[in-house]
């Protein structure tokens, strides 16, 4: 099974300048290739990897600066661009701006990569044109190296090895009849149908205050100045710690959940669409922009998508199945009788069923997680029907009517 191993590099001044240069060259190749693809698409034509790789070889004869980087990392950049354009569309792929993109490039040929352990805490890797680079041996390599990716985060450089650890995905989970539903929220990151609450703060009050001061300093600094670069570096250090905490939380939570459940059900949430800006345009300004900004920040802070990826990654080792179910009405449906009403959820944390003869009450997030588990990957109708006495055309009740005649008085 293929997995990643990431280590922090300890590069000297010469190597630091080289990896910075490699990253800049890869960025230029990406942007040039993307611009060429967009021009072709505007004319109704198509450009792919093969002719671009041939043109890159010709360009290296005319532009000596392209020869500074190893050929195969430039070819890999064009391959990544080709995959991005095919997956997302040419005009939806982003430019790699120098101010926003962190340098990153991949050495795809395992035959040109050598890794040695120097001692208890240090190891080294031999990479094309970089030579031997030392890295902190923070965990065992655990397999045969397939490729290596060098990237920068903040002021530090890292190397990530793609290794084959020799493990095989189990055909069946150790507890095959277990299932769990997960409700992701903005107050609590993840709540399971078993009643477990998974959450932790990712940023401290001191870091929040410090980051706000740095933002004010950044706004007053001159573009291109040394003071601005130092301010950005300080901001990146803070956000780097926050990102590491979030990643660690998602990995530990995912490992805990999949170890106990053969089926993990999640809401099919489009995080990018849900966290889109509401600012609108010059002709049509947005509404409730400040409220939407706060909601976007809360969604991104909890790491919904990162938790989903962590679950899918951890599930490979336990044989768990991760499925996504429609999110419609999971927070308004009673997990005991199936009654759906907008007034069932009294507040963010309290759910109380309004159906006659039911009166089921529990934490709203736990109730939603049980509905997600009950769906279990099966399609949910547009009107959120899970009750046997419910008309498939009947919409849920509103606050104005207070009642829906299409719902049976009792689930039994």
* Largest beta-sheet details: 7 strands, antiparallel
Count of strand segments = 14
Poorly predicted residue ranges: 377-412
Question: First CA to last CA: what distance?
Answer: 48 Å
| Helix-strand makeup class | alpha+beta
Give the mean pLDDT: 86
Helix % is: 25-40%
How are the strands ordered across the major sheet?
2-6-7-1-5-4-3
Helical run tally = 9
Question: How much beta, percentage-wise?
Answer: 15-25%
Number of domains: 3
Shape: globular
Rg over C-alpha atoms, rounded to the nearest angstrom: 26 Å
Element order: H for helix, E for strand = EHHHEEEEEEEEEHHEHHHEEEH
Summed up:
The protein is an alpha+beta fold and 412 residues long. The protein folds into 3 domains: 163 residues, no CATH class; 113 residues, no CATH class; 87 residues, no CATH class.
Structure, explained:
The chain has helices at 13-42, 49-62, 71-88, 205-220, 226-260, 271-274, 289-302, 304-318, 364-375, and strands at residues 2-10, 104-107, 114-117, 122-127, 131-136, 144-153, 156-164, 179-184, 190-192, 197-198, 263-267, 321-325, 350-352, 361-363. Helix 2 (49-62) packs antiparallel against helix 3 and helix 5 (226-260) packs across helix 8. Mean pLDDT is 86; it is low at 377-412. Strand 4 (122-127) and strand 5 form a beta hairpin. The radius of gyration is 26 Å and the shape is globular. With 412 residues, it is of the alpha+beta class. It has 3 domains: 2-164, no CATH class; 179-202 and 236-324, no CATH class; 326-412, no CATH class. Helices cover 38% and strands 18% of the residues. The strands form 3 sheets. A 7-stranded antiparallel β-sheet has the order 2-6-7-1-5-4-3.
